[in-house]
Amino acid sequence: MKPTKLFSVFMMSVFMLTSVVACSGGSTGTSGTKGPSASPTENSAEKYAVTKPIKIEWWHAIESQYQPTVDKVVSDFKSKNPNIDVEAIYQGSYADLNNKLVAAQAAGTTLPALAISNTPYVAQYGEAELCETLDPYIKATGFDIKDFGAGLVKSSSYDEKLIALPFQISTQIMFYNKDMADAEGIKIPTKWSEMDEFMKKASKVNNGKTDRYATVIPGWDQWYFEPFFLNNGVKIVNSDNKSTDLNSDKALNIANQIKKWHQEGTAFFAYGKDASANMRQSFLDGKAFSVIHTTSLYDMYAKSAKFKVGMAWLPGGDTNYSEIGGNVLLIPKKNSQEVKNAAWAFMSYLTSKDVNMVWATDTGYMPTRNSVTKTDAAKEFLKTKPTFQVVFDNLDKINPRIQHPAYSQLAKTWMESLAKATIENQDMKASMDNAKKLIDEILADK
Amino acid sequence: MEPVLENEKKIELKKSKISNIKVEEFKDFLTVLPALAFFGVFIYYPLAQLFNISFTNWNLIKDSYKYVGLKNYQWLYNGSGKAELINSLRVTFIYTLSEVTITLVGGMLLALLFGKMTRKYAFMRSIVFMPKYVGMSTAAVVYAWILNGKYGILNYVLNIFGIPSVDWLTQQSTALIGVLFLTSWRVVGYAMIIYLSAMQGISRDYYEAASLDGATKVQELRYITIPLLSPTTLFLFVTTFIASMKVFQSIDVMTGGGPYESTNVMVYWIYNLAFVDFRVDRAAVTSILFFIILLVCTILTMKVSDKSVNYDS
Amino acid sequence: MDNYANSKGSRKALSIFRDIIAIAVTLIMLFPIYWMIVSSFKTSDELLQAVPTLWPKVFNWQNYPNALKMAPFGKYFFNTIVMTAGIMVFQMLVGILAAYGFSKGKFRFKNTLFIVVLGALMVPIQVTFVPIYVMMARLDWINTFKALIIPEAVSAYNIFMLRQAFMSVDNSYCEAAKVDGMGRLGIIFKILTPMCKPTLITMGLLTFIGGWNSYFWPKMVTSRPEMRTIAIGVYELKRSFAGLETMNTNEIMAGAFMAILPIVVIFMMAQKYLLTGFSKAAMK
Prior knowledge:
The structure holds three protein chains of three kinds.
Chain A: H1 7-18, H2 44-47, E1 54-60, H3 67-80, E2 84-90, H4 94-107, E3 114-118, H5 122-128, H6 135-141, H7 150-155, E4 157-158, E5 161-162, E6 165-177, H8 178-184, H9 195-202, E7 204-206, E8 209-218, H10 222-230, H11 249-264, E9 267-270, H12 275-284, E10 288-294, H13 298-304, E11 309-312, E12 322-330, H14 337-350, H15 353-363, H16 376-384, H17 389-393, E13 398-399, H18 407-423, H19 428-444
Parallel strand pairs in A: 1-2, 1-3, 8-9, 8-10, 12-13
Antiparallel strand pairs in A: 3-12, 4-5, 6-10, 6-11, 6-12, 7-8
Chain B: H1 7-53, H2 71-77, H3 80-113, H4 119-133, H5 136-146, H6 153-160, H7 175-199, H8 204-212, H9 217-228, H10 230-245, H11 249-254, H12 266-275, H13 280-308
Helix pairs in contact in B: 1-13, 2-3, 2-13, 3-7, 3-10, 4-7, 10-13, 12-13
Chain C: H1 8-39, H2 44-47, H3 63-70, H4 73-103, H5 110-119, H6 125-138, H7 145-149, H8 156-167, H9 171-179, H10 184-195, H11 197-213, H12 216-221, H13 230-236, H14 249-274
Helix pairs in contact in C: 3-14, 4-8, 4-11, 8-11, 9-10, 11-14, 13-14
């Protein structure tokens, strides 16, 4: 039951008002939402085949400097599938794209055939049943889903059903100043227990003033420091799905260490709207030995830095998993079967082996398929970006994000409590106890 | 016509007068009907929908929802929403009252300062008004940069005068001030133009009479200009008040509601409830409350102003 | 303003003092725009320097053509003009009528209904855009001018501004006109409107600026680039890596500056009519 049932009464007044309008123009949606349904056949592959020429829209958030890549991929697809005419449209940032998708979902008739979505939204969309379940398509067309890392697949699923395909993926990584490391013999820590020593060795603090930070930890997005907690035994969301352990001793241990480093000036906990730009600048200016950021920014750092940039896997604890970031592709459920079939054809193309490497090379995201990393194209890729070897080596250590529908609220509360205690030197335990109270309420409310 | 009207004719005249009045009233009403109909469709209908949603647990993207009675109202007035509500209202009111004061006082001062009708002054007025037509998103980007704690030019200039750098947008105490810099810059030129164009409408006779009586400029200001500008002041007060309460874009670009919710104004909070937390039921309750608060404030203002505003008619 | 001072000397001093303050204020107000323009000529490297430079070391004109290349600004320009013109026409017409009704008109519930109009200002677009979007979708108006114009066709703000102005016009003018046999529309368009010309021009200018810079709603309702507007276009210039950091603020500033140029021109022209001195107001 949609809330817009009363609408018909007001349609009258709207029509009255608008009978004067002369302006018209522009096209109406061409996602072909009206039309005869395909006749079901026994052969399931045929059920998902595209039988008539069709035009579909692909909504994405890929910025204009990558337009040539997008155009090329789309036209390659067209030449292989003349029946399907794909229009790739830039819709703004991830947040804009989310807003438009949500509004289109509410309206029901203006949804695109295919859309990109930032990974944190997957749980929400899954719970709301916005996405078409892909398992039948995969089975019918023999799509090689096993070629994707288990973590990637899990992160595109909700409730055991696959609702999206991983598309442009990134993960947390530590970028460091390779020239500085070589010159001073600084070793990148692989275990959390080595962090203290690393902080002392890689930083330069004089009389309370920091000339150089060992590292900068982003505090504006919990995605960056989550692995430190997860790898050291903190669950963040307990198995009952209704409470958090962020004020446990294990969690407090990690949090207090971060606070210590920030307070003594060996590391910097970056928080605030412009923190990301400042962090980048500090690194480039040599004021930070390393920064913790996302693999998708490698191109930017490599290009802008006047020194060699290295990538290192984040130091782990009991485990050394990282988390998935970036975006996935999804097919809205509300469209007609024809549209969804065409969307599937395009989606499987975009995530196929050949195209996978194209995205990685051109846009700085990682290849997502295991087999791809063994191809010649991958070897070429590594020749130009040898630092990516560390990522290729660890592809199966990339875990899905935590899939709770209320996770974004939890994250916000957690971030603020952690930042406040760390930066303003307040009692961590009190801050986290308070956070736990708020978060438990948030989690339970779902 | 007969010089004396019979009673019957009198009654007939009265009746036609009354129906005339009714027709006139109806015609006057017709002039406002299009506007009302428009608002009915595009404002009050969505508001009614929101009212409906506030009693449900809809999350904006699901196709179904349940009615949960007053659960969301409890959340806002008694539950975890209460603390956030108080914070948000406090932030929004502080911001709004500062903004309104700056607008009215600054606008008036600038109108007096730049009131000279010379070419040079006309040029300067255009520049002072310019901030208004730079789009808000662009202006916010420029300001975020000017106010940047490490690389911003404001701190650079302060340092030259020996004043230490301030982390404008990343400190709880100064974040709101940083945003006020931006919005004040945009709005004072606009208020100036509004006041100036209203000042054109004040008949010169008043000033001539006053100077004949020996009044000083300050007295002219106090007893002629400001009172006769009171309709404009009312207009600026109400519209700036409402617009400030609705601030969103600048907060979104410059502070993201932070640090630590110190700039979490009402509309930003509502937006996040709906599109980040996907709790449109909570967003609905909060929107309704927000609307009521604004309505009450505005009605109070209008009632108070009825006594003090001089319409000169 | 009249200069009523005691002697010619102090009058001159006051005048110079006034000039100095005026120039100082102007420069301060100008600075962020100056910054914007200067940045639009810098190269990316110079832009991101730790110590900001007040004048570009190298004049990089490339930002402007680069910006123009990134999006179909010609089409955006056309769309913006049509949309803004449409909005202005509707807002003026409906606004003038309603302002008359709420100022000089007499009918029951007039004041209450005026509050209803003001109430329209109190509901932010971020809250109403989904229901209105759904309405537009049902009518199949998404990606058309209708969706860009109609939801913005009436402005409570304009009605309020005009109502205040009309209320300041002495009733005797209207009475006189009525005696002369003028009807309602005549009074509105031949008496009230001409007498409030400065207000109307201000209103028109503000409506134009509002439409030109309008961003949130057009963005939501144009999923296809052919209907997009300039404000959206400037936003599309953002070049970031993985949606995470804006790298090319210089190009964005170039785009933003080009976007405001038409307004600058129009305002310069409007100023002539806007502030023409005291004479117009008193119509005996």
